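Q: Mind making up any chain with structure tokens?
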Amino acid sequence: MFDDYSLIKLRSRLAAEGEEVIVHRFRSGNTRMVARPDFEHWLRSTTHDANNSADMRKPSAGLWESIKNYCTGFLTHYGFMKERGIDGDEPGPVVRMPSEALLRVFDIPPIWQEHYRLASCEDALFVEEPHSSNLFGRGLCFGNGVIVPLGLLPEGQRVKVLRRSWIESLEPVVIQVKS
């Protein structure tokens, strides 16, 4: 539940097959994916803003900042607080990944390659446990059975959506039988 309200002010859309997405850690502390062009545009504008002002961006939020952002989003959504202008301080829209989407993960960090026995580029399924008791209900399941929670993926991790559902790739081949 914490997860759903903390990104409430951000627009979202469903992933498209063939698109490349980037892992981003939002100020709320949640990790989600955004389209690569949107992320790069946001990064350029953030870098430009930082170069033109003394106000440098803070690193990802700590626990108390995440709780504050969650509460603000919740109260704003239900009308208890007025919404401040949405000012492009986060990339968007968030790309919603369907459960069991088939993904290709690029540039896997060398430490993960060694620890989890992965190559630098691997295919994985996006898995989601909506009733999970921990904060890691979303993750990537690699071919060797290793599941890496989405929250542990590094900022900027590149991922390509191969199929929105791996089941779609198992369509039977129709063979006509002549009698």
Notes: Strands lie at 12-14, 20-25, 31-35, 94-96, 102-105, 122-128, 138-142, 147-149, 158-163. Confidence is low (pLDDT under 50) at residues 1-6, 53-58, 83-87. The first strand starts at residue 12 and ends at 14.
